[in-house]
Design brief:
The chain has 220 residues and is an alpha/beta fold. The protein is built from eight helices and eleven strands. The strands form three sheets. Strands 2-1-3-4-5 form a five-stranded parallel β-sheet, sandwiched between helices. It has a four-stranded antiparallel β-sheet with strand order 6-7-8-9, with helices on one face. A two-stranded antiparallel ribbon has the order 10-11. The radius of gyration is 18 Å and the shape is elongated.
Length: 220
């Protein structure tokens, strides 16, 4: 899943991005409200972590602008302020949750995962069954009849992009966009490396290559 962090404290933003990337998320980071609004408008994100006190445009205004445009991406607002009025204002503008600095990183991750589970529950089940696999997108675990299959965070993220689109062909470009951040400038063939690794763990027939188009998770 792809996250956007809009936070002007650069050290904090980088620290959060590294931690969330280790959890298997693709993370983009910007440091002002105007750029944050642009990124959230131009790209498809699964969740936005949005600071309130931002240069250019504060978080309340960014949130209000996104909601006014019909963008329903989950928004977790961060602020150094404290008080019921500030929380109420953030939620009134359309935020889904609110966290006051300083906060525990563990709590932040838990809030993010809870928002993503809530969004998934509103659309489709968090548990996907395909090709003899049970893929739990909430706990980020994969099972087969003979037990659990251990995947790295990145392997799961690649598999998830196929699993949430059952029967569909998923292009390399789509996987690259949603699993790696927009600033990734490495070899796009990195996807083939992860597909090969997944086939070794899941079985050679689990993921089918559609030549010239992308990949598809086997239905059976």
């Amino acid at each position: 899943m792809r996250l956007l962090i809009v936070e002007d404290e650069k050290r904090l933003a980088v620290s959060l991005a590294k931690g969330l990337a280790a959890e298997g998320f693709a993370v983009d980071v910007v440091h002002d409200g105007v750029e944050g609004l642009h990124m959230a408008t131009e790209f498809a994100y699964d969740l936005v972590v949005l600071d309130i006190m931002l240069p250019g445009m504060n978080g309340y205004r960014v949130c209000a602008a996104l909601r006014a445009a019909g963008n329903d991406v989950p928004l977790l607002m961060l602020t150094a302020k404290d008080g019921e009025y500030d929380e109420a204002e953030g939620l009134d503008t359309g935020a889904d949750d609110y966290l006051t600095k300083p906060f525990s990183y563990v709590v932040l991750v838990a809030r993010i995962k809870a928002l993503l589970r809530r969004r998934g529950a509103a659309g489709a089940s968090a548990v996907i069954r395909a090709g003899g696999l049970t893929i739990d997108t909430g706990s980020r675990r994969v099972f087969r009849e003979d037990g659990e299959i251990a995947l790295t965070a990145k392997e799961f993220a690649v598999l998830e992009q196929l699993a949430v689109r059952p029967g569909e062909i998923v292009s390399k470009a789509h996987i690259l966009e949603h699993v790696w951040d927009f600033a990734y400038a490495g070899d796009p063939n990195i996807i083939e490396v992860y597909i090969s690794s997944l086939r070794r763990k899941l079985g050679a027939s689990a993921i089918r290559t559609v030549r010239g188009a992308g990949y598809r998770l086997a239905a059976s």
